[in-house]
Amino acid sequence: MTETSYRYDEFPLTPSRRPSAVLDPTRAGTPRGNVTTIVERVSATRSVSTETRYFDSGATHTVRDPKGGVTTHAPDFSLCGPASTLKSSVRNPLGHLVSTVTDCASGVVLQTTDANGRSKYTQYDFLARPVETADPGDVLTALPQSGPAAFTRLATAPTAPGTRPGHAQVSNWTEYLSLGLRGQQRVVNYTRDGSASGLYVKTFTDGRSQVADSARESVHELMGEQNRTVVGRAIHVPGVSITVTFKDVSVP
User: Fold this and answer.
1) CA–CA separation, 245 and 200 (whole Å)
2) What is the rounded CA–CA span in Å between residue 176 and residue 5?
């Protein structure tokens, strides 16, 4: 038999310093319905508890686990402005810090930094679809950030020249093909394997992650790509995916 009990609104709220335009000061001190303590019975004579404290905006501030370890959340409460980004962080009970930078307007994640200080960057197209992911040591392609088809990335992200996703040294990139054209799949995902020879894998799926009758046309199209040689091919369960492995012969 188990027993769990909940307590609410036990602790003072931490000020978020948000302006009154977005935070109603007249609600200060009123019940919020925030779960602040969860008590779980683990034996007939012993219980453990998890304690959570909040900002006045409703965001989580700290979580104390049953062993007494505290995880601290530091959201960014800034308001959106031109070219604005938001940086939030979480520090675990061991003091390890991870952080995330998001685009304020669209909410997409532009950068994540792990506890070792290693950052991963992501670039998006004008429809907020991810087109490139730069792992630590990679660089994004410096695609245009203005105009009707502008790309979104962190201004401080490492970049190298190029005219389309995948031109720079990235581990993963995605191509979104035209809709409704026979013989073309809607999404093409690329993943380099990190080898010096430039070997990478290209997986084709349509808008429903299915291959159906476009499989033959897709493989035929790829076999004729310039500067590339097919070194392996696997057609998986029908309706799932096609994977074609290439060696880019333009890479020494």
Assistant:
1) 6
2) 50
